[in-house]
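[User] I wish I could look at a protein chain and see how it folds. I have put the entry right below:
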Amino acid sequence: MASIDRLVNVQITLNTAGITQEGFSTLLCVGPHVYGLTRVSTYTDPNQLIEDGFSADDALYKMVSAAFAQTPSPAQVKVGRQQVNGVTVKIGQLGANSTYTLTVSNVADNGDIREKDYTYTNSGGSASDILNGLLAAINADNEAVVSTGSADPDAAISQLHVSAKNPGTAFSVRITDNLTVEMDASSEDIADTMAAVMKSDDDFYGVAIASREDDDILAMAAWAESNEKLFGTATAADGAKNSEITNDIGSQLMGKNYFRTFWFYHANAATEYPECAVMARCFAVNPGGETWANKQLSSITTDDITETAYNAITGKNGNTFERFRNISITQNGKVAAGEWIDVIRFRDWLAEEIKVNVMNLLVNRDKVPYTDAGIAAIEGQVRAALTLGQQRGGIAPTEYTEDGQTNLGFTVSVPLASSISANQKASRILNDVKFTARLAGAIHVVNITGNLTYENLLEAANA
């Protein structure tokens, strides 16, 4: 049979390539753990962390729980793993005829995941007998990726230290309920942790860390500033509440003029994470549609702060969570450099929106000509991003002055093709595409003045 293509040949090209767009509503909680092999794990419910081996006392569990406790709740929260090279195993419950199992997993050289159970069944022995039994099981495994801290199987021991044979390689552990695990402190630098995290999964915007140490906070703040992420932290240091103290972490962050780091004073910062709560709450709103002040937070204890302490905290561009009558809300809403947090997030979103819009145009057309029409197409993509920013509430709408003059929300200017030199056109680079946009801002405080009088207001108005 003759092919119809001889008469009518149809070729349809799909100019529908989508450019990956960074998200501005995903939170990453970073901390040391041995409950997974990947650098980044994604959770849609805090109970999933318990299933993976975390306990309710783990900092990462508390961070993720604080995020999911907000209304509206995030769709997902990611956990970044800081490398831990060893753990200490102890007996949690001593019982006869009980089986004790330590499960160790690792990624083999061929990419397969090797999961090995090290088991000891107690028949009335002591805690030391159980631990020595687990030790012997590990030592008997020629392919074990972990080693134990005791080489004498007959020694009386109260705990068993297990560490990676090759420090820096990942291994995860699971235990039966009758054992307990305590992690070693991580010696991995924040920068190294985040480099590994970004290589695994860079689709996040907000970052929080389990550590409250000043050095770790400063390291993460420096990383966030150079990687276009938003970092939140908290401190319970009394110095943060004192305007005369200038070496506290709040003063240090302000002194370094960090535009991508915000901090809270929080008395319970050791066990609660208001930064995770407020990011989850505000990330539920599109960039441009939120302010980070006056937000109610679930699961976070209210701080009782004097006006003097509040002025000291906000004087260092810090944030608070305080009670006003019967409600508790966040106050200030600024980054360490003094800019509003919502402005930083909106700026980042707008830059990404413009980049993706223009790249989509360049990729999905055979050619964007270096003519007035081609330049207008570029202008149209910039305007589309600004218009969406206006709809989202970040850019002010067109307004009018008292005398009726138009005050535009934004303006865009592009050059005419005739004004561009032949040399510039030959480079195929378009310069001088510019815009100016008015931020919509937000009202945090209202000052109202009024008068009480016995006068006839109608007469007073006509006077």
